[in-house]
Amino acid sequence: MNPSAYQAFARHVNPPLARYLALSGRDQRFARASACEMETDAGEVYTDWIAGFGSLNLGHNPPALVEAARAHLASGVPNLFLECLNPVAGLLAERLVQAAGPGFATAYLCNSGTEAVEAAVKLAMAATGRRGIVYCEGAYHGTTLGSLSMMADGEYRAPFEPLLPHFRRIPFGDLDALATALDAGPAALVIEPIQVEKGVRALPGGFLARAKALCHDHGALLILDEAQTGMGRTGSLFAFQEEGVAPDVLVLAKALGGGVVPLAAMVAGEGLFERAYGDPLRCEIHNSTFGGNSLACQVGLEALARLASPEFLDDVRARAAELARLLEAQVAHHPLVERCFVKGFLGGIRLREGDHPWFTWSHWGMDEFAARPAMGALLVHRLHRRRILAQVCAHDWSSVRIEPPLVVTVAQCQAFVAALREELDWIAGHG
Amino acid sequence: MNARDRRLLEGKRVLVTGGSRGLGSAICKEFGSQGASVAFNYSNDAEGAAKTLAAVEATGARALAFRASVLDEAALASMVKDIEGAWEGIDILVNNAGMSQPLPLPLMEPSDWDLVMDVNAKGSFLAARAVLRGMIRRRGGAILNIGSLAGIRLIEAPAHYAASKAAVKGLTQSLAKEVARYNIRVNCLAPGLLEDGVGQSLPEHRLEEYVRHTALGRVGTLAEVAAFAAFLVSARNSYMNGETILMDGGL
Predict the structure, then answer these.
(1) In this structure, what DSSP letter does residue A352 have?
(2) CB A136 within 8 A of CB A165
(3) Are residues A358 and B77, on separate chains, in Cβ contact within 8 Å?
(4) Element counts in chain A: helices (H) and strands (E)
(5) Helix%, strand%, coil% for chain A, nearest 5
(6) What is the pTM of this model?
(7) Residue B193 pLDDT > 60, yes or no?
């Protein structure tokens, strides 16, 4: 890739991001990637523990998916079947409905998680005839205006207030608050089984079952956003399967396209699509030009087949168990670590804030971040120096996410945890 | 006011790197006589270190000596920890440890370059970082880097030595800017040729030429530089910061 192309990003895509990456030493020119590794144009290899925020469950450029895309493009099959029967989308929808389990009937296919969330919200409104939506504090469902209306407070939402009306926030995991909110007769509760961006925090055990019951008692739908927790990330194909509580609407994205193509889906329960859009006049009022394009669906079929494989998931669980054991032994009880949570290959390490003045944003010359915790970013920086890509959670800068491709090896897990431990020791010893 | 009250560094806790001989030893003795508790490190010269230790204690001051290289991060951290454990802190750091080799460019190997740059510039960085951790917490202190005329003016000096001392000047400025917010001053003292200094390895005719161009007509003494160093790190020098001061007899 021409070096000037990277400069073009800095000039024409996101200049302040480019400046920050340069300041923090993270402006490498990555040129190649495979499985769990990214390589710069200078040949430096980094291990990826961000995995596209949960999009690269099969690793970078998984050969089978790349080949599926190539073969499909060479086949001459139309990519866009607008106003036509789309067989590839049909196949994918069928497989998704089957994978989601009994009670699911249709899949709306689109291009991104936020699109799928908004599709779910609109479906709920149209199917119930209601307008209100209940969501949880600390959420991150996307940055388009509907999803943004459910965003946690902070810089993501503040510039765009006031957002959509009739969106009501409840404390995370609070059944009493949910019950009160449902009294107002909303269309749905939208929720993530694990709020990744709020520091990787999971719903309390039993919450989903009670929430579903409460929603149904009040005529509302339960919409579960598994854009990041789905597709094997937590060790099951979908996180909800672990509690055995199926939502009315399931949102999938990110790894659904294998990290190769943009692909998302809103999988809906029996009868919902008909209630919302069940006549020729309304059946296309919510649509997407590239939603369900056959290239994306072909790759999605390949990704789903692999990620849903019982053998694959067994292996994921076994390796994830080893990661959990390593974290418990070497990191979880470190004096700097306030909390260490991991489920499957989704985890977060929350750090205690230090008190040394030279480990602050102000000392590092970034006063604009002065009100934010610094330790998470410091750990990310130290890991980056060891060629490990990591990142903090968007709504909790004290937490560093653990989110590798699901094909990460045990050796890579061992190296990662050892590096974590060494860097935590370094920070403790220098601050 | 008695003589004790007039001492420039009364009650201060000092670390001098490279204190076993030469300017470092002179600084240790002077600082002790000015009321400071003096710790120093040395890399090899145990005999010299023992003499410096005795000389500092003879002034009535507390003294500690450590065998530690300024390039050994772990050793520096351990030394700082021991000093802070004994004296509850370090108020002043003098980055004096340094070396030179009389090598013209064609005979200078990359390994020679690395050695001199490491000891003179990197060693100053590592020692400063080791000490600043505590200084910043306590929000106060002073650092004096020993530079050289060779790092500032066009004089005959080995390329790696001149480059390393120019680096020390740059380090002084940058560090002064970064830590001033914690009430810590950083300055650099750049002597010209001194008796018993690194310049003593010059050929005789070069030394004579240098003296001829010096207004005072002589090289400096270790005691003169040590005395000024004491002022530079004292509380009386409260407003000088990021500065490199030449002390060369008027070249």
Answers:
(1) P
(2) no
(3) no
(4) 15, 17
(5) 40, 20, 40
(6) 0.89
(7) yes
